[in-house]
Design brief:
Number of strands: 0
Order of helices and strands: HHHHHHHH
Helix content: 55-70%
Shape: globular
Number of helices: 8
CATH class: Mainly Alpha
Distance between the termini: 39 Å
Strand content: under 5%
Radius of gyration: 20 Å
Structural class: mainly alpha
Low-confidence stretches: none
Mean pLDDT: 86
CATH architecture: Up-down Bundle
CATH topology: Four Helix Bundle (Hemerythrin (Met), subunit A)
């Protein structure tokens, strides 16, 4: 099998199981974080006045990733940029808005969302390893997606791909989208990511205080986590029991 077909086959398989990547990262990252808590000498900011600002910076990195996803999902038409698992879906080719500066904004958002916890471990080698693993994993997925789009949209896709980078945004080429922001689509689609982000940081933070045998005092993070979890439950209820979050044409 030629490499082009092999890469596409691998990418299609990885696409179906891309939800497993966060679990793998979280499991390994938790082990690294616990090791750092038991051996604080491996983290140069541990026990310094800069530790809390650094942790806040890690959270902001994750929230940046979530913001990228929210902006992307909120401005895309129906049957594009979705959470489909088994097959690629694209009724239209997105070329405006964030798609005018980067071809894979959702994967860029995912990268920052998981870079935050990776940085939180305080382990440079784990962070570098995460970046390399993420690139190798998603490179195949992006290749398979682009093969699908190339076959479906032909020259239109090629012209777009020639001027828009795959992963590192080029802000000079921004072209505003004509689509309004669809908050219903965002609330339903991104509630998981919002709740998971704060929950992960709370678990890491609380685990650190347990290991250090201290009383927990980061009440701001605790309140935000409880708030996002309540929002998740409310949205889940509205989605199942009402038509409040129904989308009109998107």
């Amino acid at each position: 099998m030629a490499l082009q077909e092999e890469f596409e086959r691998q990418g299609t398989w990885l696409f179906r199981y891309r939800g497993s990547l966060p679990i793998i990262i979280l499991f390994i990252g938790t082990l690294v974080y616990v090791r750092t808590e038991f051996h604080p000498e491996y983290f140069f900011l541990k026990g310094t006045p800069h530790q809390l600002p650094y942790q806040s910076l890690c959270l902001l990195v994750s929230l940046l990733g979530l913001a990228i996803r929210i902006y992307t999902v909120g401005h895309t038409p129906k049957n594009t940029s979705g959470r489909n698992i088994t097959n690629q879906v694209a009724d239209t080719l997105n070329t405006t808005g964030i798609y005018s500066i980067v071809r894979h904004p959702l994967y860029l958002g995912n990268f920052f969302m998981w870079l935050g916890p990776a940085l939180l471990t305080g382990n440079l080698w784990f962070t570098v390893s995460f970046c390399l693993f993420y690139w190798l994993y998603y490179e195949r997925i992006m290749f398979a997606e682009e093969q699908f789009l190339r076959r479906k949209f032909g020259d239109s896709y090629l012209r777009w791909a020639d001027s828009v980078p795959a992963f590192i945004p080029n802000f000079k080429g921004f072209n505003k989208t004509n689509l309004s922001f669809n908050w219903e689509k965002v609330v339903k689609g991104e509630k998981n990511g919002l709740a998971a982000t704060f929950l992960i940081f709370l678990i890491f933070d609380y685990a650190g205080t347990l290991i250090e045998k201290q009383s927990y005092s980061n009440y701001h993070l605790l309140i935000l986590t409880i708030g996002t979890l309540l929002l998740y439950v409310i949205v889940k209820f509205l989605k199942m029991k009402t038509h409040f979050l129904d989308e009109n044409d998107r």
